[in-house]
Amino acid sequence: DAGVIQSPRHEVTEMGQEVTLRCKPISGHNSLFWYRQTMMRGLELLIYFNNNVPIDDSGMPEDRFSAKMPNASFSTLKIQPSEPRDSAVYFCATLAGGGNEQFFGPGTRLTVL
Amino acid sequence: AQSVTQPDIHITVSEGASLELRCNYSYGATPYLFWYVQSPGQGLQLLLKYFSGDTLVQGIKGFEAEFKRSQSSFNLRKPSVHWSDAAEYFCAVGSTGGFKTIFGAGTRLFVKA
């Protein structure tokens, strides 16, 4: 299995632009998590899905952030409009049904100028 | 409330020396415990996990960890550190199903020749 796939690996954009991050989970994993990692705040859970349904989005910082999981093999995290303080590494992680440990993708490093 | 504390922000050890990274947790029930490693520019990789049974667990890359319920600790150890072990290490505590996994702030390991 290729593991969790995230794209792009790096994104540089200007303030005010829309940013879309993508994640393909491990086949058969039915839970998906979006995290944000910064030096100041460490690893923060933004939102997670179970069977494509958002379960807990309490970590989403504000309305500029949205996430979707239209099917079992794809999820997006969108920031619109982006701001410099959104600069971070965004990780997607997935979890198999009945499992207990999360598997992480390589992350997307976002820089908002 | 669940929490994970990694008291050491960074640690420096000499190559070939032994290593112990500390982790303390707060959890209302028997926890699921994990150690992850993050190499520069990479996602988090699971080193080992504890769910039940033998309190000394073996992981990949020669790491082990010991669960001590009386001390609410789950310290990570390695008898002889290699330069390639330089990375950031995260302790995490979770519940059944893996949905509510809480990560510590991480300990950055530096290895000197």
What features would you describe in this structure?
The complex is a heterodimer of chains A (113) and B (113). In chain A, 0% of the residues lie in helices and 58% in strands. Chain A is mostly beta strands and 113 residues long. In chain A, the strands form two sheets. In chain A, strands 2, 4, 5, 6, 9, 10 and 11 form a seven-stranded mixed sheet that branches. The relative contact order of chain A is 0.34. Chain B is mainly beta. Helix content of chain B is 0%, strand content 51%. In chain B, strands 2, 5, 6, 10, 11 and 12 form a six-stranded mixed sheet that branches. A four-stranded antiparallel sheet of chain B has the order 3-9-8-7, with no helix packed on it. In chain B, strand 7 and strand 8 (64-68) form a beta hairpin. The N and C termini of chain B lie far apart (41 Å). Chain A binds chain B through residues 4, 31, 42-43, 45, 48, 50, 55-56, 91, 93, 95, 99-107, and chain B through 32, 34, 36, 41-46, 49, 51, 90, 94, 96-99, 101, 103-106.
Short recap of the structure:
Chain A has 113 residues and is mainly β. Chain A is built from no helices and eleven strands.
Ordered list of secondary-structure elements with their pairings:
The complex is a heterodimer of chains A (113) and B (113).
Chain A: E1 5-7, E2 10-13, E3 19-24, E4 29-38, E5 42-50, E6 53-56, E7 65-71, E8 74-79, E9 88-96, E10 103-104, E11 108-112
Chain B: E1 3-5, E2 10-14, E3 19-21, E4 24-26, E5 32-38, E6 44-50, E7 56-58, E8 64-68, E9 73-78, E10 87-94, E11 102-103, E12 107-112
Parallel strand pairs in B: 2-12
Antiparallel strand pairs in B: 1-4, 3-9, 5-6, 5-10, 7-8, 8-9, 10-11, 10-12
